[in-house]
Amino acid sequence: MKIAYCILCHKVTNPLRFTVDYLSRFEENKIYMHVDRKSDIAPFEEAFAQANVTWLTERIDVAWGSVSQVDATLALLKAANQEGFDYVFLISGDDIPIASHEQILARLERYKGREFIAYQDERFNRVDPRERVKHHYPDMFFKKRKTLMERVGAKLHGVGCRLGFFNNPFYKTLPRLYKGTSWFTISHGASCFILKYLEDHPYYRLAFQYSFCCDEVFFHTIIKQSPFNKNVIRDPECYSDSLRYIDWKTGPDYPRTLDESDFARMKSSGMLFARKVAPDIDISSLACFVDKTSEQYKERLFA
Q: What does the alpha-carbon distance between residue 198 and residue 193 come to, in Å, rounded to a whole number?
């Protein structure tokens, strides 16, 4: 089984080093990396020289919460589709595998043809996806740390939206919207459908131009109205249908920044990847954590 791992990243961290080093060991894996255009590419080229790692040359300036996150994801899917694969994982530079390569293959073989993309349900605090798209959001919304004036501006923007201002003129062209988690694992067929849908419906991307956190809506809405929707895994007893361990409950950050103290919970979740992991976590502890990661791998990593 051929797997494409599409990684959105902006700095070289220990989780990223471990993830790329581990996944690139297996010839059936291909890794595609999009490095934020604001970042210097040199440290990445120095850190990751594996033969099955591909860099996207056309890089996008990614801003948190903006449509640029969608554009970078689409660039990765297009690059992966040129070479073909059975499944594609969308992960970030803060993610690590919490299952071995063999365990990942076994899960995908067991559910071959199914789609792993999580929609909000009783396991989530529900958010109305329409509010993400039906208004225009200015640049200040895409800053995690806002100045006092920007916080005031955001409040005034909310008042304006309730009064009927800042409306998105393309909103009414959209189908019913659906929301879920940003990170997914989908089949080659589903990936091809997404790209073909955008070719056939050019207005769709345009409608998200000034939206807010639309990466949690954009892909889910397309899949929901596709023939692949019937293949989406839905298991209320599972930790997450996306196969990702993400802790939104414990804090103090939301989502929680994971470290060695979270290993037991991560493992018992039955998921394949975890995020987001502390950038300076010890690589040797990660190597010991992943099942079937051999002593030879750890020795090679620190040679």
A: 9
